[in-house]
Write a structure and sequence with these properties.
mainly alpha, about 300 residues, Hypothetical protein af1432, single chain, about 0% strand, 17 helices
Length: about 300
């Protein structure tokens, strides 16, 4: 990418501050996510959630979803927080904040589909992290949620160019990031990195945003990048994507992310790929139901 093109992207990214809620909401929430869990008062979370009917309803919906296997219906915000845990509630708050970014117009990618994929990728990233026994599964959730921020930039700041890229991806049946490179001269990974730096997102999240389509370039946090990259692909393969970013001949055993994860985690190295894919498909089915019930309620 040339310096002139990078400067153009930076200028357009800065214009996204015309949506004042973006940095004002995300930065404090990310800071809060970093706090030790024992420094958070559950009752304060209950009070906060109870003040917003939409967030309360989403917490209850998630707590009663098939992902948590509750034998009894959860009927109160306090009960939902007990089931979900403070971390999960914070994730819901962050997700709700990000939904304020939904464009009000008809964009190339349906904004609801975009956020369904983002939220779904977060859930799948955490599930995959737990299966691998990764030390920070909640970090994987956050990285999965934010990995495609660059597509938001492209949808809002390079609309016509991005439309051409999407059309190219559909007509040539190639991944969207390759079509972006051809049509725009850059990808959502490039614009996402610039937005992540502009918002001062943590280093590991920024690297996921930049390299989730090119895991082998990740030098600082390759495992986290691999978790999100694999989860992103699994979502695309299981109807939790954009329908223009799928690889027709994708195989788990040949994915660079799988190579990174099986190298570092014995539990995955010893797993049978067919069984792993079956478990992931079953989880994604429930995750897809959940995110659609949240976003389309």
């Amino acid at each position: 990418m040339t310096p002139t093109l990078r400067e153009l992207i930076r200028e357009r990214v800065e214009r996204l501050n015309s949506i004042p809620t973006v940095p004002a909401i995300i930065r404090p929430l990310l800071f809060y996510l970093e706090r030790p869990i024992d420094h958070v008062e559950v009752q304060r979370i209950v009070d906060l959630v109870s003040c917003d009917e939409a967030i309360s309803a989403q917490c209850l919906r998630v707590a009663n979803s098939a992902l948590y296997f509750q034998s009894r219906e959860v009927k109160s915000v306090h009960g939902a927080i007990v089931v979900l845990g403070v971390r999960q509630v914070r994730e819901i708050l962050l997700s709700c904040s990000l939904l304020n970014l939904l464009p009000k117009q008809n964009w190339v990618i349906d904004p609801l589909v975009f956020w369904e994929h983002s939220l779904g990728c977060g859930l799948v990233s955490r599930f995959c992290a737990r299966k691998a026994q990764y030390a920070e599964p909640e970090r994987a959730y956050l990285a999965g949620l934010l990995h495609d921020l660059g597509e938001l930039v492209n949808m809002m700041s390079f609309q016509e160019e991005f439309r051409a890229a999407a059309q190219l991806a559909r007509s040539d049946q190639i991944p969207l990031h390759r079509a972006e490179r051809s049509a725009l001269g850059f990808t959502h990974c490039d614009t996402g990195k610039i937005l992540a730096e502009h918002w001062r997102l943590p280093e590991d999240i920024t690297e996921v945003v930049e390299h989730h389509h090119d895991v082998q370039q990740a030098k600082l946090h390759p495992v986290l990048v691999a978790l999100v990259s694999l989860s992103d692909q699994l979502c695309q393969e299981n109807e939790l994507g954009y329908e223009i970013n799928q690889s027709l001949d994708w195989k788990l055993e040949e994915d660079p992310s799988w190579a990174v994860l099986t190298r570092d985690f014995p539990t995955l190295a010893n797993a049978e790929p067919v069984r792993f894919l079956t478990e992931m498909e079953q989880f994604i089915l429930e995750a897809r139901k959940l995110v659609r019930s949240i976003l389309r309620a």
